[in-house]
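Writing this down once: the sequence line spells out the residues, with the fold written below as integer tokens. I am pasting one below:
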Amino acid sequence: MAVKLVPVECLDLFCNRILQNAGMKPSDAAIVTDSLLFADLRGIDSHGLIRLSAYLERVRMGVMELNANITTVSDYSASAVIDARNGFGQIAGIKAIQIAMEKARECGVGSVGVKNSNHFGVAAFFAIKALSANCIGVAITNASPAIAPYGAKTALLGTNPIAVAIPARKQRPVVLDMASSVVARGKIRLALLASERIPPHWALDDQGQPTEDPASALKGTMAPVGGPKGAGLSLIIDLLSGVLTGSSITGDVRNITDTSAPSKTGHLMIAIDPSKFTNPEQFRSDVDEAIVRIKAMSSVNGGPIYLPGEIEAILEEKRRAEGIPLDEELQLNFSKLASRYGEPEPWTTSTLSKRGAG
């Protein structure tokens, strides 16, 4: 089965319809769909549409809520905590960053914690939302154990990511999105599905030794970026997103494929309004100047110098124009979902007709 290039609009319709047929409210289905497509468009395939079936399986097994009623735990001038009530992390995350942006307009900085949530996809999806209000966005989350505390052999820390989006004026925004591991754990899972080896610096086996076998890697631990620095960063993110919000203690988050109990994931969203610190137009111009200076520097290989998030933005433009590639595994996954929820596969003529293209 060859790789298929499928128009973004078809995948958008397919994912929306599957979620709605499963019983999700249309407005929430749109948020989850946007998040998954955001990942695939930017080449973060491990957090994209491949996650849809895992989410729905958790719902089917009764360990994740399809239409959770998010509640407010605390609300102050510059901070708040909301309870996701075991719903989709994307929906709680969007609500949190929106509240943070509103508070930032008033106080300069707004921070919102989320407790009792689930996997929320790509952290940059939320940080970038703050750019619409000319704010700086920060998003962090904890995750299931995958990294060993430095010096230990057993996983306790997650690959806990941090994303920061900073607006520019004429240049692309600077968008840092990184896991505290060398790579996201989802890339190991993708390698396993594709029966591929992994680079030896990605992960360690259960004896703490580097491995190229993705199965051994998933039984062992992920290698933290920068050794003790990455392990330390992971711990700090866990304490700020899981412990600070009252969602979970370090090591208690459940994996997305674990259908035995709720995830207990926590998030923290922060928005910063530059206008409360300096002239906002001057700030964005100065960010432009910093970008121009960096890109004008001589590169080590003679090629272009990229800023954080730039490669992903370029790929997004390409995939919006040409379509998103679906490998054999994802095609089979979508065929099963299509059959289960009574929808045509996203690459069929009937799907194109539904969106008015056929």
Notes: The radius of gyration is 20 Å.
